[in-house]
């Protein structure tokens, strides 16, 4: 039976067309994958179905009836549950309190906390067997918070469950638990809409796919009938064949040592890390999640005052104790959590892009607006930044475009070492390719050096000249050029 | 039950010690000791009763303020609302007509709820920031209060004194005479307040007050009516203020349009000292009581330490700043320890 039918839905935001005619069908007990670039409309469509936005035109039929929700509560009451990318948890409340938030049951006049705890534990222990439900949410890791969010949606026993990028913050083991839960829900009749930028995930768990581009669906596949053709999927998403560019290799372009790190120590988090980074080299940082990779990136950018380390850039010794030291020496960080660390979300794109320039290059007393404006427009062009205008608040941009702003603001400054902390997380294939081709151009042709931490192993394999595998805060192994294969990385990460 | 971790005694103590409530208890202990040292008859019954009477109003107003702050708001109109309620009480009561006392209580209670509703409405539905909204309403309450009582005065029925001293009813029963020897009604008012909050905290509304204060968007997305929750928080606050008004009129028999003014900012400071986070969503209302006690004892200490009158306000303010700064520093210190351990 068709649980959901979406016909030709259109949605505008101000002057920007988010959906120009989207259609979708979801059947009972089937997992439908939504694929498409950031800004292609799939998130918007999900939110319209969940009642967060109202469509400008088009028809949505749910359980056989036409629906027109005015707010998310109405959708929820009808059995539509959605798990967002931006969490809807209250940090000060505990895990179990968050899971039952808004759906508490009473024993007499008072809250039935015992029942609530049991309900919460039942669901969340399927995904995270060891989590303490009495912990407050702000004490959890982002991955655990995402799981609480999922548990919350599932606990309402929805008939249609929409999962918007639920795996972005999760580790492989948690993803597998999530997939098991999804299979269980599907077999009990729940229809599921699943979005992810990791193609392998979508291919593995979904029964069928619908692909969006520029606000409408451009293709669909039913895995009961069609075969899982990755190239075809990428073609639909980007509208072009995936390019295998011919990039110069490090052997041709790498120069002398740019950054030399000896005996980097930070409490118990980072132990005795030493490595050299050549000019024009892309050095990867890999290993299992949570082995200190993000902390290493922050440390190299000068965020820890208590760090002890012998660092030299182009032969000159520097102290990595303050971010301003690092930046003045051309070491620049693109942080992992762009929303909290990389952007002033309420400010415009323009302000965000020029901020480092004004902060670091103290030239004139009065800010040269016209000149900066021109530079910004150039940068926006280089990065194929899609923004209706440079004056829009940066929070209105899609994730991929936001990330471009985070990187864009460092362009035009003499960047010697670019530290990338999972820059392509949650970004679609099109934007990812743009991003990396720009970075690689800077590296091979201008001699910029890059340290790249990516949670997606495939990114490391594709772009890095050398990879440092981290384990419990120190470097367990180094893989060089030919040694870089998925098998070797996994072996080294698990210390096999 | 799967997943429940076993906490050793040491772990529980360490967890508790890092909470801001713990530091406020420490400060309270210090204040108690200092006061006991400076005030010779601190432990005498009469003296304790007098202290309770002096502290009760601030305790009540602070507890109400705490509820509002936890819900994500703040009430700058507490003091004038309190004054207004005393003026209403003494305008309805007629000295010679005992039943007017009952009418006064009922009507004033309803007006208190109305005050809370209006404050909450401005914030929840009109979306005016709490600081501005309650700042504005404070003038409305003041205006009405001055209209009712341009100068302090008004009438009060004789039995109203029961809210201040059980002695008032000694003619009705010897039981009251007995009580008046050791139990100040003010204490009962505080207990009533505590029971009120206890009941609320065990209901959905109590949980939602924390949710809305903690993250109002998340609360909204979870289906909680944030505006209604904020209104209820303000109405609870009004009930606490109402209890304080009963006490004041019981004590003085008159209404005064300006008598509540000093309590507004003090209640906010007391709440913060008691570990309530101004950002909302965090804190324990019973510890607001602790905060109010600390502030009240500070005043006592200044008085008994014979600090010249001209400097009393200055010193009192300085101590409050130190107490709050100390409490905040304690919070960020213990948070840093947690962060370093995790990261």
What descriptors fit this protein?
heterodimer; A: alpha/beta; Rossmann fold; 2 domains; 6-stranded mixed beta sheet; 18 helices; 22 strands; B: 343 residues; mainly alpha; 14 helices; 73% helix; 0% strand
Please provide a brief summary of the model:
The complex is a heterodimer of chains A (496) and B (343). Chain A is of the alpha/beta class and 496 residues long.
Explain this structure to me?
The complex is a heterodimer of chains A (496) and B (343). Chain A contains 18 helices and 22 strands. Chain A is α/β, with parallel strands linked by helices and 496 residues long. Chain A folds into 2 domains: 2-238, Rossmann fold; 250-493, P-loop containing nucleotide triphosphate hydrolases (Rossmann fold), CATH 3.40.50.300. The N and C termini of chain A lie far apart (48 Å). Chain B starts with 8 loop residues before the first helix and ends with a helix. In chain B, helix 4 packs across helix 12. Chain B has a domain at 45-259 and 277-283. The model of chain B is unreliable at 1-5 (pLDDT under 50). Chain B contains 14 helices and no strands. Classes of the chains: A alpha/beta (496), B mainly alpha (343). Chains A and B meet through helix 2 and strand 8 of A and helix 9 and helix 10 of B.
């Amino acid at each position: 039976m068709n649980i959901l039918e979406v016909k030709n839905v259109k949605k505008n935001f101000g002057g920007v067309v988010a959906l120009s005619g989207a259609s979708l069908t979801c059947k009972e007990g089937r997992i439908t994958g939504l694929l498409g670039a950031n800004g292609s409309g799939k998130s918007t469509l999900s939110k319209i179905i969940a009642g967060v936005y109202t469509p400008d035109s088009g028809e949505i039929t749910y359980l056989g009836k036409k629906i027109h929700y005015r707010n998310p509560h109405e959708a929820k009451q009808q059995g539509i549950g959605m798990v967002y990318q931006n969490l809807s948890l209250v940090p000060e409340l505990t895990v179990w309190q968050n899971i039952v938030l808004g759906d508490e049951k009473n024993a007499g006049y008072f809250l039935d906390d015992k029942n609530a705890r049991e309900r919460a534990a039942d669901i969340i222990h399927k995904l995270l067997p060891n989590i303490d439900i009495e912990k407050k949410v702000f004490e959890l890791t982002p991955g655990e918070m995402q799981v609480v969010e999922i548990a919350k949606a599932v606990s309402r026993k929805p008939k249609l469950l929409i999962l918007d990028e639920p795996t972005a913050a999760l580790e492989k083991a948690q993803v597998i638990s999530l997939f098991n839960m999804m299979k269980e829900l599907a077999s009990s009749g729940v229809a599921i809409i699943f979005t992810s930028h990791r193609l392998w995930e979508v291919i593995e768990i979904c029964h069928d796919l619908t692909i969006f581009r520029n606000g409408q669906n451009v293709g669909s596949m039913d895995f009961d009938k069609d075969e899982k053709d990755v190239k075809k999927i990428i073609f639909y998403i980007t509208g072009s064949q995936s390019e295998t560019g011919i990039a110069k290799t490090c052997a041709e372009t790498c120069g002398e040592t740019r950054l030399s790190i000896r005996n980097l120590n930070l409490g118990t988090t980072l132990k005795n890390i030493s490595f050299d980074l050549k000019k024009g080299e892309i050095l990867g940082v890999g290993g299992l999640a949570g082995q200190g990779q993000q902390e290493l990136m922050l440390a190299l950018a000068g965020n820890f005052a208590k760090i002890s380390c012998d660092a030299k850039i182009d032969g000159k010794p520097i102290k990595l104790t303050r971010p301003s030291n690092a930046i003045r020496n051309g070491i620049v960080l693109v942080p992992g959590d762009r929303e909290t660390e990389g952007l002033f979300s309420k400010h415009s794109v323009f302000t965000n892009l020029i901020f480092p320039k004004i902060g670091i290059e103290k030239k004139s007393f009065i800010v040269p607006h016209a000149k900066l404006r021109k530079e910004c427009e150039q940068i926006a062009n280089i990065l194929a930044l899609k923004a209706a205008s440079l004056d829009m608040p940066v929070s209105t941009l899609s994730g991929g475009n936001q990330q471009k702003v985070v990187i864009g603001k460092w362009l035009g400054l003499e960047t010697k070492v670019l530290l990338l902390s999972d820059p392509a997380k949650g970004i679609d294939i099109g934007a990812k390719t743009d991003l990396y081709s720009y970075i690689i151009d800077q590296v091979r042709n201008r001699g910029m050096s890059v340290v790249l931490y990516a949670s997606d192993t495939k990114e490391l394999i594709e772009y890095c000249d050398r990879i440092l595998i981290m384990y419990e805060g120190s470097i367990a192994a180094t893989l060089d050029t030919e040694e870089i294969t998925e098998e070797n990385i996994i072996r080294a990460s698990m210390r096999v | 039950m799967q997943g429940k971790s076993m906490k050793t005694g040491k772990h529980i103590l360490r967890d508790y010690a890092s909470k801001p409530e713990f530091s406020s208890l420490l400060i309270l202990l210090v204040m108690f000791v200092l006061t006991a040292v400076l005030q010779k008859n601190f432990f005498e019954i009469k003296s304790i009763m007098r202290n309770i009477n002096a502290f009760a109003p601030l305790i009540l107003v602070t507890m109400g303020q705490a509820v509002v702050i936890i819900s994500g708001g703040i009430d700058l109109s507490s003091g004038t609302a309190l004054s207004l309620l005393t003026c209403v009480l003494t305008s309805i009561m007629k000295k010679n007509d005992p039943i007017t006392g009952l009418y006064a209580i009922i009507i004033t209670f309803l007006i208190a709820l109305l005050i809370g509703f209006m404050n909450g409405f401005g914030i929840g539905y009109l979306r005016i920031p709490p600081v501005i909204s309650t700042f504005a309403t404070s003038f409305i309450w003041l205006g009405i209060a001055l209209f009712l009582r341009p100068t302090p005065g008004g009438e009060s029925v004789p039995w109203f004194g029961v809210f201040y001293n059980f002695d008032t009813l000694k003619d009705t029963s010897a039981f009251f005479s007995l009580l008046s020897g050791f139990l100040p009604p003010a204490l009962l008012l505080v207990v009533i307040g505590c029971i009120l909050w206890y009941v609320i905290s065990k209901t959905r509304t109590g949980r939602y007050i924390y949710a809305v204060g903690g993250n109002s968007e998340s609360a909204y997305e979870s289906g909680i009516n944030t505006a209604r929750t904020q209104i209820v928080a303000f109405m609870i606050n009004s009930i606490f203020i109402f209890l304080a008004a009963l006490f004041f009129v019981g004590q003085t028999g008159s209404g005064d349009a300006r008598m509540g003014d000093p309590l507004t900012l003090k209640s906010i400071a007391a709440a913060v000292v008691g570990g309530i986070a101004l950002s909302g969503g965090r804190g324990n209302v019973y510890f607001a009581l602790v905060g109010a006690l600390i502030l009240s004892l500070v005043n006592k200490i200044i008085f008994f330490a014979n600090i010249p009158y001209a400097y009393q306000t200055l010193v009192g303010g300085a101590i409050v700043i130190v107490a709050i700064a100390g409490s905040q520093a304690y919070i960020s210190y213990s948070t840093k320890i947690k962060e370093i351990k995790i990261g």
